[in-house]
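Support request from a user on the community tier.

User writes: "When I paste my C-alpha cells into the form, the page sometimes reloads and wipes my input. The last time it worked, I copied everything first. Here is what I submitted, just in case something in the input itself triggers the reload:"
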C-alpha cells in the first residue's frame, strides 16, 4: 500500500481480496477526516477523472479515495476480461474494508460515481459491506438508453464522442488532448453487460437504503430523460430515505471535465453535508 500525503492526491494501491486496485488517495490537511468519498470513474476512463473534485472535497475535511475500477489500471492484467458490475461492487467493498483497516474514514463512506461508475456505485449501495455508507451521488447514469446510444460505441475508439462530450464549447481549451491520458480499454465483460442495465437496475434499486442524488447534464445523450422515465427510475428506489433528481445546465456527459465541473462538485458536497446531518 502506498502512503498518501495531506493536501493533494497521490498514487495509491489497495489489495482488494487479492486484486490490486490502483488509484489516488487525498487526505484533508491539518484536520480530522470527516468522511471518505469513494470516487468511481466511468467507462473507458481512469481514477484521475476526479482530479478537479479532490481539492474542493479535501478543503472541506473529506478524504477522497478514487480507484481504478476492477479491470482497469493495476488490475487489468489479472482481470483480462474485467468483472461484472456486481463483481466490481463486491471488489470495491473488499477495498473499502482494507482501506478502513489502515485509515480513519470519519463518519462513513460516501459513494460518488460517473456513468458506468455510477452503475457500480448503485450496485455497491445495494449490497452489504463492512463499512457504513452515508449516501450516493451519481451523474450520467439513467434507466433506459436513448435510441442513439443503443449501438454502444467505443469510448477509446472515438465512436462515442458525441454521446460523451456534447458541444465542444462546454469544456476548457485543451481538455480533449489532456483527457487522452485518462482513457483505457473497456473490459469485455463490462461491455457485454451494458445492454442488460435496465433489467439489472430494476433488481438492485429496491435494495438501496441510503440517500441518493442523480444528476443529468443538459446535453446528456446516453439516456432517455423524459419525465415518465425518470419518475419510473426514482420510484423503483423504494427503500432509499430520499431520492433527488437534478439537471445541470451547460454541461455534457463528462461533467467533471467541463466548465460546469465546479458547480456540480459543490452540489455533490452540499448533498454529502445533508447526508452527514441526517
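"...and here is what came back when it finally went through:"
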Amino acid at each position: 500500500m502506498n502512503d498518501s500525503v495531506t493536501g493533494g492526491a497521490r498514487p495509491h494501491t489497495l489489495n482488494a481480496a487479492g486484486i490490486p486496485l490502483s488509484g489516488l488517495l487525498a487526505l484533508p490537511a491539518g484536520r480530522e477526516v470527516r468522511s471518505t468519498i469513494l470516487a468511481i470513474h466511468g467507462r473507458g476512463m481512469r481514477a484521475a477523472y476526479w482530479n478537479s473534485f479532490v481539492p474542493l472535497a479535501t478543503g472541506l475535511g473529506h478524504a477522497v479515495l478514487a480507484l481504478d475500477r476492477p479491470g482497469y489500471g493495476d488490475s487489468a492484467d489479472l482481470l483480462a476480461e474485467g468483472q461484472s458490475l456486481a463483481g466490481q461492487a463486491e471488489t470495491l467493498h473488499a477495498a473499502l474494508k482494507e482501506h478502513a483497516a489502515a485509515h480513519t474514514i470519519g463518519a462513513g463512506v460516501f459513494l460518488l460515481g460517473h456513468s458506468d461508475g455510477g452503475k457500480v456505485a448503485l450496485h455497491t449501495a445495494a449490497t452489504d459491506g463492512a463499512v457504513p455508507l452515508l449516501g450516493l451521488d451519481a451523474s450520467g447514469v439513467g434507466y433506459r438508453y436513448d435510441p442513439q446510444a443503443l449501438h454502444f460505441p467505443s469510448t477509446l475508439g472515438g465512436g462515442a464522442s458525441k454521446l460523451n462530450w456534447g458541444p465542444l464549447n462546454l469544456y476548457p481549451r485543451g481538455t480533449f488532448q489532456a483527457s487522452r491520458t485518462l482513457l483505457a480499454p473497456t473490459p469485455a465483460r463490462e461491455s457485454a453487460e451494458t445492454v442488460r442495465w435496465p433489467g439489472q437496475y430494476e433488481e438492485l434499486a429496491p435494495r438501496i437504503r441510503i440517500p441518493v442524488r442523480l444528476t443529468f447534464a443538459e446535453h446528456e445523450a446516453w439516456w432517455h430523460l423524459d419525465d415518465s422515465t425518470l419518475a419510473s427510475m426514482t420510484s423503483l428506489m423504494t427503500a432509499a430515505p430520499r431520492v433527488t433528481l437534478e439537471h445541470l445546465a451547460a454541461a455534457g456527459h463528462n461533467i467533471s471535465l467541463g466548465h460546469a465541473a465546479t458547480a456540480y462538485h459543490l452540489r455533490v458536497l452540499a448533498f454529502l453535508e445533508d447526508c452527514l446531518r441526517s
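Agent notes: The reload is a front-end session timeout and is unrelated to the input. The mean pLDDT is 92. The two ends are 33 Å apart (CA to CA). Escalated to web team.
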